[in-house]
OGDHL protein
Amino acid sequence: VMSILLHGDAAFAGQGVVYETFHLSDLPSYTTNGTIHVVVNNQIGFTTDPRMARSSPYPTDVARVVNAPIFHVNADDPEAVMYVCSVAAEWRNTFNKDVVVDLVCYRRRGHNEMDEPMFTQPLMYKQIHKQVPVLKKYADKLIADGTVTLQEFEEEIAKYDKICEEAYTRSKDKKILHIKHWLDSPWPGFFNPDGEPKSMSCPPTGISEELLTHIGNVASSVPVEDFKIHSGLSRILKARAEMTENRLVDWALAEYMAFGSVLKEGIHVRLSGQDVERGTF
């Protein structure tokens, strides 16, 4: 048995649980006799610059608390990655201590389907768009070396694509998701036996439609005159104005209205966390 943990760079540095478990890693009753930590370091935490996310140069510096060896490796060099992983496995087997592999790489697209990284990281993403993808880079090298032929490479890719396509097709046959199996307890204090929430009295928090419309209109306008606004953003504001007019809300506008209504009562709202500055959600 080998304990392997896969981390993101921002989480590795930013989530206290990583630092805490390193401190448990060598305690007599808790040790796993060494875990291999693989950090997929794409040098950006969702949309956050490393300099805004941590105080140390490397995300892996928290591992220094137990003097774990840390290997920084260029993920564009698959053979170097394989070599480093072999060394890490050997270290763990020999000394029964934690070891960290820092895969220094990049994220080609946004964090998810909705995220456009050029908004927040234009310089970085101009560089990324120029990069040759690692698969092509390595395939070209192997073909140039004569290690594989172009035909062999294409056959391997086709074989892998087929596995993915078949699994995707099979996934559509799943008609029922047994979510209850994942819950460790049915929370009897909160729900009736049939799963409905028990009634809980709550003070009324509603506000007038007039005030909601006002907040919606403010949330879909630009506060500065003659301000050149990004076309992607102006589309969002226009859609928001239309929603307000049609008496509709989405998650973002509902959140905006909640904050706005609290501000209207003279209560300060402080947002802190990963993506509040750009208002991702």
Q: What stands out?
A: The longest strand covers residues 35-41. The mean pLDDT is 90. The first helix runs from residue 9 to 14.
